[in-house]
Amino acid sequence: MRKIRRSLWHRHKIYRARRARSKSKATFIGVTGSSGKSTAAALLGHILASHGPVYTQVLANAIDALASTLYKRMWKSGKVDHVVFEAGAYGVDTIRPMAELLKPHVAVVTMVRLEHLASFRTLENVALEKRALVDALPPGGLAVLNADDPHVLGMASGTRHRVVTFGRTEDADYRVTDTQAAYPETLSLKVRWRGGTLDLKTLFPAEYLWLPTAAAVATALELGVPPEKVAARVATFRPLVNRCQVLVIEDGPHFLVDTAKAPWHSINLAIDMVAKAKVASKRIVLGQISDYVGSTRKYRDAYNTAREVAGQVIYVGDNAHRSGAGQADRDGGRFVELRTPREVSDHIRKTAVPGELILLKSSSNLHLERVALAWTHDVKCWVPVCGKRSGCQGCGLFEVPFEQHRAHVRKRRRARLWQWLRLTGGDEALRRRS
């Protein structure tokens, strides 16, 4: 019975969302890709906000979030000129229903990599899934595609849409050059297009983030945002929480927190960011690699690369034993194997050096962001795996012991209910009835 009620409610929600979408005169923009889509969507929304009212939905990127955006949240924010939605693929045929509901005027695709291995198996299957967003464009719609990725560029074939490309290749409509980043120096780049050359300075600590930056910039320029506004907004955009986020502790370490996801293709990019950093002391903490739970080789390859650039490499979680680290590295402290985020936090607390750079890299299941949060908050939730996909900051309960979460949430909901009743006068009615 509960499943039937849930199904009926879902259908009703989709119906209301579809009606709301049909009445809107906003420009709808969908952003997808194996990596970089959250940053590209958030940055694009940040840029467009200088050009008019915008609603941006990132991180929560499944169809329920889209339905809520369309029929509820978007309207609460008032009239909007642009809606930016990040569309995530969690399995075969998950983007198509979102694309049909969103009916985008613009589709942005960042890259195609082998993700959600159990569902997709091949790059071609991933590309087919992402293409559903492009195929949903109306005649004359705009597709913004990565020219450096053949699987993405292939989405331009057979389309009825206008296509613009971005990338480092000379043939890209928005060609990226002169990318530089060496922490603490942040990413700078040039974008050359038919309108000239745009010099951009960002707050991103890594060079590889040129890609979502270019995707957002190309889209904003195509939508008519003046170049000077684009450059100014790019310069003020801060990295998303737990996505290459920088946390500097006064008289303590500098954390690079990249704990939202860890597909294999992103591991070397994160390690390269540490390699280029201009700091004396470096450490790397590696947790779960996405989609490679049982792969010994991937963890060994990552360790061999990380040990060349960091003074110490810490492996944490159920796969920590897969590093292949030799006994000499273990005995000399070059490699440390731990089981829980709490153990990592305690270890770093005891050994931290002011000004050292510490990369926290893992998929979201371990919530390694707690290691950095513990320097600025009283973290009390140290359960190794809580089952929540959202980051600790989104959950907001990291200062409450895990076993008290349920009671805390119930108490918070009751408080909100009573506040609403007081505002509406319902509390007096309840008292009279009792």
Could you explain the architecture of this structure?
With 434 residues, the chain is an alpha/beta fold. It has 3 domains: 2-236, Mur-like, catalytic domain (UDP-N-acetylmuramoyl-L-alanine:D-glutamate ligase, 3-Layer(aba) Sandwich); 245-396, Protein-Tyrosine Phosphatase, Chain A, CATH 3.90.190; 401-434, no CATH class. It has helices spanning 2-23, 37-48, 63-76, 95-102, 117-120, 123-135, 150-153, 210-222, 227-236, 264-276, 296-306, 327-331, 341-351, 369-373, 392-395, 405-424, 426-433, and strands at residues 27-32, 54-57, 82-86, 106-109, 142-146, 162-167, 174-182, 185-193, 196-201, 245-248, 254-258, 282-286, 312-316, 335-338, 357-361. α3 links the parallel β2 (54-57) and β3 (82-86).
- Strand % is 15-25%
Helix tally?
17
Question: Based on the structure, what is the oligomeric state of the protein chains?
Answer: single chain
Structural class: alpha/beta
Largest sheet: 9 strands, mixed
| Distance between the ends | 32 Å
Helix content: 40-55%
The low-pLDDT segments are none
Strand order of the largest sheet: 2-3-1-4-5-6-7-8-9
The coarse silhouette is globular
CATH class label of the largest domain: Alpha Beta
Averaged pLDDT, please? 88
- CATH fold type of the largest domain: UDP-N-acetylmuramoyl-L-alanine:D-glutamate ligase
The CATH architecture name of the largest domain reads: 3-Layer(aba) Sandwich
Full CATH superfamily name of the largest domain? Mur-like, catalytic domain
Rg result? 23 Å
Q: Count the beta strands.
A: 15
